[in-house]
Design a protein that fits this description.
The complex is a heterodimer of chains A (about 325) and B (about 425). With about 325 residues, chain A is an alpha/beta fold. Helix content of chain A is about 40%, strand content about 15%. Chain A has two domains: about 15-135 and about 295-325, Aspartate/ornithine carbamoyltransferase (Rossmann fold), CATH 3.40.50.1370; about 135-290, 3-Layer(aba) Sandwich (Rossmann fold), CATH 3.40.50. In chain A, the strands form two sheets. Chain A has a five-stranded parallel sheet with strand order 7-6-5-8-9. A four-stranded parallel sheet of chain A has the order 2-1-3-4, with helices on both faces. Chain A starts with 15 loop residues before the first helix and ends with a helix. In chain B, helix 2 (about 100-115) packs parallel to helix 3 (about 135-145) and helix 7 packs parallel to helix 8. In chain B, about 60% of the residues are buried. With about 425 residues, chain B is an alpha/beta fold. Classes of the chains: A alpha/beta (about 325), B alpha/beta (about 425).
């Protein structure tokens, strides 16, 4: 039974069934990434507005590439060069974009809830490409696709998340997503970024415990999600980087406490030698590059679902793959 | 002459609760008796309605001078009388700040010209509310200020606050503080808790308020100055005030209708739920309700904080704090406090009249020779609040479309009926 989505603002409101549907829709689109001719015509004549109000390279390129491979045009707005710097409000900016008649808006913003605010005020689907410290749904979906491919299932895994969980939208979306499949979470990192309130994020059937000592937090982990260390933050005292490396860097020795086949995920950009040891980043357990490729599949699936306006089976789209390229 | 017939006159200052007629002559109350008749008097039939002393709001922002696109003294006081308020205390965070006689005078003159609610200005404690030098408090007092506060920019410097309190004590003025530790609140947009973590909003811990309350009370102990906690929102702050009162300190506090009605669980990304102090936890709300019932809380104050739509129609973390409050205050108080049986109707009247009057060192009652400021309201009138119909120039309220039982029916200021439903 196909599901219809009017927006993709976050993982929290989705059901496990809807998430499974999106991941299943992404499966055939993984194939096209290996195809010599990677372009479909399914969304030819459609356009996606990409509005990134916060610096981003990889997510923006991933969405632009996903749109291009479906035949859609993109309109790009980057905060650095936009009229926002001249003081225009977010609402005026997106209404201006909307007046150019795109079929969907992909948006990243440093304010939590900014895409929700916009979605209530414009008439096209909005995809949240990361809002403040709230959610990053496409990252969680591509992480889930990666884990499901490697492990065969998402059900009941032990997931350890390392780093500044409080300020991480990636962590929140992953907790919402994997928690709906009964995964159990262990959060570890500097204690000031692991407030007790995080435990309340666990969906029903899931659980969250906070274990500041990293070695203990890694015991028995099936999946290790390493968060990027964000050095720039207003109103927060920074932690000395040496201190971070000393206690929280994911090294091969520490990783040995996890399951032998534990997966290591990182949303990027990755700081080798800071939150992750290069030997782990490049090791056989690392999924970092698969995550990037899967990001294209997941984003293509979402663009299809939201821009076509009618439920479509992604495998039907793939049937035209050979000759649709142009 | 105005004769108010057959109302249920409630005056907490005298413990009066009886069906009486009230005759107003000139700007004062001339008779409060049963079966009054007055030749030539205009008659207002108030049977089934409560006739109370004029409601006083200890805390509002009228935005004039400087913020006239959000509110003017005229529009603000028109909204105030629609809410049953006969006098409102205007916080000094205007542009320029009300830290000198000329601004105070201008506010008083504009209010008189508007002819709606009385405006009792609150003067800044420090020049430009910068927390550096003491403002012209004595001169402003002669021009009409009723209290002193650097609301919204609380004095961080304890020595300066001590000096302000020493000085205000000698002048007989109450010092009002928006109690907030700036470092704990920096950059945050809602109360810290499970909800803020879920929404990804930076959180202000309850301690940001109670730490400041605790410090201020220590300075009250040093100085003996009358001190009032603005928009108290946290359980621990209330407990500190309760203790201080028990110890006989000259301390009072106010609570807003939104803090006793809503909690942080109501917050999402709608900026009409963004105010400072932020909506607190369920536990805090329960404590406030208890404090309203047991007498720890002295007054209900609106913290009416209008912002024009363009300012609120933005990302949550970029929106200014504050919501409008005049026109919904009484109805929310009836809904949350009286209809639920938490407090008596007499206590509600006290929280809007005698309570705030005493904070300012005044006496106000339905008493012969007192100013003829009266609020006539119904506990039963059914109505729906529509922000677009508000007299305020702003629409920033979370209560748009809310249906109520109980409403202001008429507002009399200085013997003149300035508004009637």
């Amino acid at each position: 039974m196909p599901h219809r989505f009017s927006h993709m603002l976050g993982i929290e409101p989705l059901t496990a069934e809807q998430i499974t549907f999106i991941l299943d829709q992404s499966k055939p689109l993984q194939e096209i990434q290996r195809h010599p001719l990677k372009k479909l015509a399914t969304l030819r004549g459609k356009s996606a507005a990409l509005a990134f109000f916060e610096p981003s390279t990889r997510t923006r390129i991933s969405f632009a590439t996903a749109a291009a491979r479906l035949g859609a045009d993109t309109m790009n707005l980057q905060a650095e060069v936009s009229s926002l710097r001249k003081g225009e409000s977010l609402l005026d900016t997106v209404r201006t974009l909307d007046a150019m008649k795109p079929d969907c808006l992909v948006m990243r913003h440093s304010s939590s809830g900014a895409p929700h605010f916009v979605a209530e005020r414009i008439g096209i689907p909005v995809i949240n490409a990361g809002d403040g410290t709230h959610e990053h749904p496409t990252q969680a979906l591509l992480d889930a696709l990666t884990i499901r491919d490697r492990r065969g299932t998402l059900a009941g895994l032990n997931v350890t998340i390392l780093g500044d969980v409080l300020h991480s939208r990636v962590a929140r979306s992953n907790i919402h997503l994997l928690g709906k499949f009964g995964c159990k979470f262990t959060l570890s990192g500097p204690a000031m970024w692991l407030p007790r309130e995080l435990e309340c994020l666990a969906p029903q059937g899931s659980s969250i415990r906070r274990v500041p000592r990293m070695e203990e937090a890694l015991e028995g982990a099936d999946v290790v999600l390493v968060l990027r260390v964000q050095q720039e933050r207003h109103h927060e005292a920074a932690l000395a980087l040496d201190e971070y490396v000393l206690l929280y860097q994911l090294t091969p020795e520490r990783l040995r406490r996890a399951q032998p086949d534990a997966l290591v995920l990182h949303p990027g950009p990755m700081l080798r030698g800071l939150e992750i040891d290069p030997a782990v980043a490049d090791g056989p357990q690392s999924c970092v590059l698969e995550q990037v490729t899967n990001g294209l599949a997941v984003r293509m699936a979402l663009l299809l679902m939201l821009m076509l306006g009618t439920p479509t089976d992604a495998s039907d789209v793939m049937k035209g793959a050979g000759h649709a390229a142009d | 002459m105005l004769l108010i017939k057959n109302g249920r006159v409630m005056d907490p200052a005298r413990g009066m609760d009886a069906q009486l007629d009230v005759l107003l002559e000139g700007e004062s109350i001339s008779k409060v008796e049963a079966g009054l008749d007055a030749q030539g008097a205009e008659v207002f039939e108030a049977s089934g309605l409560i006739v109370a002393p004029g409601f006083i709001d200890l805390h509002c922002h009228l935005r004039e001078p400087g913020g006239e696109s959000s509110e003017t003294i005229e529009s603000g006081t028109r909204a105030a009388v629609r809410g049953g308020f006969t006098a409102v205390c205007a916080m000094p965070n205007t542009r320029p700040v009300n830290d000198n006689v000329s601004v105070t005078r201008a506010i008083v003159e504009r209010a008189e010209a508007a002819g709606m609610a009385r405006v009792w200005p609150i003067g800044a404690a420090s020049k430009e509310s910068k927390g550096e030098a003491i403002a012209e408090i004595a001169a402003m007092q002669k021009a009409g200020i009723v209290a002193v506060s650097d609301d919204g920019r609380p004095i961080a410097n304890a020595k300066l606050l001590r000096q302000v309190m020493e000085y205000c004590r000698s002048l007989g003025l109450v010092v009002i503080d928006h109690c907030e530790d700036a470092s704990l609140a920096a950059g945050a947009v809602m109360r810290e808790g499970p909800r803020s973590v879920r929404l990804g909003h930076a959180g202000i811990p309850a301690a940001a308020e109670s730490i400041a309350v605790a410090r201020d009370l220590q300075i009250v102990e040093l100085t003996g100055c009358r001190f009032h906690v603005a928009h108290l929102s946290a359980k621990n702050s209330l407990e500190l005030v309760r203790e201080a009162k028990r110890a006989g300190m000259p301390v009072s506090c106010e609570v807003t209708p939104h803090h006793f009605t809503l909690t942080d669980e109501d917050v999402g990304y709608d900026t009409h739920y963004k105010m400072n102090p932020p909506l607190a936890s369920r536990e805090d709300r329960e404590a406030l309700l208890a404090g309203l019932a047991d007498g720890t809380v002295d007054a209900i104050a609106t913290d009416h904080a209008p912002h024009e739509p363009a300012l609120k129609e933005v990302e949550f973390d970029r929106a200014p704090f504050g919501i409008t409050g005049f026109e919904t205050a009484l109805a929310l108080a009836l809904e949350q406090l009286v209809h639920t049986g938490r407090i008596t109707l007499m206590r509600l009247v006290e929280l809007f009249t005698m309570g705030p009057a005493r904070v300012l060192g005044m006496e106000r009652g339905v008493t012969v020779r007192h100013p003829a400021d009266l609020t006539i309201f119904s506990t039963e009138q059914e109505w729906t609040f529509r922000a677009v119909e508000s007299a305020s120039k702003s629409r920033n309220t979370p209560f748009d479309g809310r249906s109520f039982r109980g409403a202001p029916m008429a507002t009399i200021v200085g013997g003149r009926m300035v508004w009637k439903r």
